[in-house]
């Protein structure tokens, strides 16, 4: 069933979009990521213009994250205080990101920037997560199925001022790192159409030392507000939100997130991370391949900039 998308100005199969929404919703519920880092490139692959894919995908992330967060609220695995601190940085970052996006759209370089951002970030994060998860699984096997509890290192983060107690996460740390992480993720959310969970989740585990079970729910909680704000800004600044596309992705995403949250409870943290890493690397490889193999696109952008 072909459906015409008015803002994107292309016709796409409605069931394909529902399926993509469902798939990304499942990932959202399992890993605590908004799923945009996967959905936005998938939209590029089926012919949606990058500027429309980015702005509309932010819309779908809000719904799938909200659906995922409800499941985590029931399990009491959301640190609202930490979510609030991350949110302060996230909203400021999203506002900056939308302005950068608008400026790049005006000079016709936004498509290239979005794709390059994806290749760089997905490559780095996928690689780091993959090797870290492999090491964790190896340690589990050599220790007879039990990972010895790591003593928390007192690093430079613990020396920073403005400390706050986060009871749900069992932490007493400075609010500066979470605000900076939130700011960075907010900028990426606006430019790349992602919830930023693929950066947020590793940062919360390795930088802040939060327990993995609390990280997923807290990350989703913060994503809802930042991506909601980014969508609103894109709709009013760049006019690139396609509501028909958003609704189809949204329906699939909400259903998928509930299924994903159930699957996530049955897998170990290391297994979840290695699965996510493999998916990230796969998408990164496909995007890099497209950028290298299709010089016609790069050529046309180059000539446009030269005039």
UniProtKB/TrEMBL annotation:
This is Probable membrane transporter protein. It is a multi-pass membrane protein. It is found in: Cell membrane; Membrane. InterPro entries: TM_pro_TauE-like (IPR002781), TSUP/Inactive_protease-like (IPR051598). It comes from the Bacteria. Keywords: Cell membrane, Membrane, Transmembrane, Transmembrane helix. The chain crosses the membrane at residues 12-39, 85-107, 113-131, 171-194, 214-232, 239-260, 272-293. Pfam families: TauE (PF01925). GO terms for cellular component: plasma membrane. Belongs to the 4-toluene sulfonate uptake permease (TSUP) (TC 2.A.102) family.
């Amino acid at each position: 069933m072909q459906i015409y998308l008015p803002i994107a100005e292309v016709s796409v199969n409605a069931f394909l979009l529902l399926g993509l929404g469902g798939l990304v919703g499942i990932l959202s519920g399992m890993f605590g990521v908004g799923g945009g880092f996967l959905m936005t490139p998938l939209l590029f692959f089926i012919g949606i213009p990058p500027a429309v894919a980015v702005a509309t995908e932010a819309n779908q992330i809000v719904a799938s994250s909200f659906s995922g967060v409800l499941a985590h609220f029931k399990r009491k695995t959301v640190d609202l205080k930490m979510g609030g601190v991350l949110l302060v940085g996230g909203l400021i970052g999203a506002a900056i990101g939308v302005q950068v996006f608008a400026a790049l759209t005006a000079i016709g370089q936004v498509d290239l920037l979005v794709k390059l951002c994806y290749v760089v970030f997905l490559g780095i994060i996928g690689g780091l997560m993959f090797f870290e998860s492999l090491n964790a699984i190896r340690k589990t096997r050599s220790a007879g199925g039990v990972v010895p509890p790591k003593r928390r290192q007192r690093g430079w983060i613990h020396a920073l001022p403005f400390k706050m107690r986060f009871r749900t996460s069992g932490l007493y740390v400075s609010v500066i790192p979470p605000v900076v992480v939130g700011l960075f993720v907010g900028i990426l959310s606006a430019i790349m159409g992602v919830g930023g969970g693929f950066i947020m989740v590793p940062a919360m585990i390795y930088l802040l030392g939060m327990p993995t079970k609390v990280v997923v729910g807290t990350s989703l909680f913060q994503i809802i507000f930042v991506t909601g704000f980014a969508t609103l800004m894109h709709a009013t600044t760049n006019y690139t939100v396609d509501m028909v596309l958003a609704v189809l992705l949204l329906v699939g995403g909400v259903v998928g997130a509930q299924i994903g949250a159930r699957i996530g409870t049955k897998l170990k943290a290391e297994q979840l991370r290695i699965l996510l890493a493999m998916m990230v690397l796969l998408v990164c490889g496909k995007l890099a391949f497209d950028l290298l193999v299709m010089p016609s696109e790069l050529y046309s952008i180059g000539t446009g900039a030269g005039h």
